[in-house]
Design a protein that fits this description.
Number of helices: 2
Number of strands: 5
Strand content: 25-35%
Helix content: 25-40%
Structural class: alpha+beta
Distance between the termini: 34 Å
Radius of gyration: 14 Å
Shape: globular
Strand order of the largest sheet: 1-2-3-5-4
């Protein structure tokens, strides 16, 4: 699996029959700020799952250590940061 650093976690690209992204949020509930940030991210992604410009969250999994959270997403070939850097956005 290919690994990248993402905001508030690590992102892996899994080469399965249906490729997907796996994001691990480390110590998601370490303090109230991190817990609230994690909760908001999950809730917004679930609420906006039908929006054409928002990546679709597939699953939310609790790690065995009860501290980390795994999020699985549909596969996308790039991310917004890479698109901005490449200067390929259109109006």
């Amino acid at each position: 699996a290919k690994e990248r650093t993402a905001l508030y976690g690590r992102l892996w690209i899994r080469n399965l029959a249906i490729p997907s992204h796996l994001k691990k949020i480390f110590d998601a509930f370490q303090n109230s700020t991190d817990a609230q940030r994690t909760f908001r991210e999950i809730m917004f992604l679930q609420e906006l799952h039908n929006h054409e410009n928002i990546i679709k969250i597939q699953n939310v999994l609790k790690a065995e250590n009860d501290r980390d959270i795994y999020l699985t997403f549909e596969y996308m070939e790039t991310d917004l940061h890479a698109v901005i850097r490449a200067n390929i956005l259109e109006e």
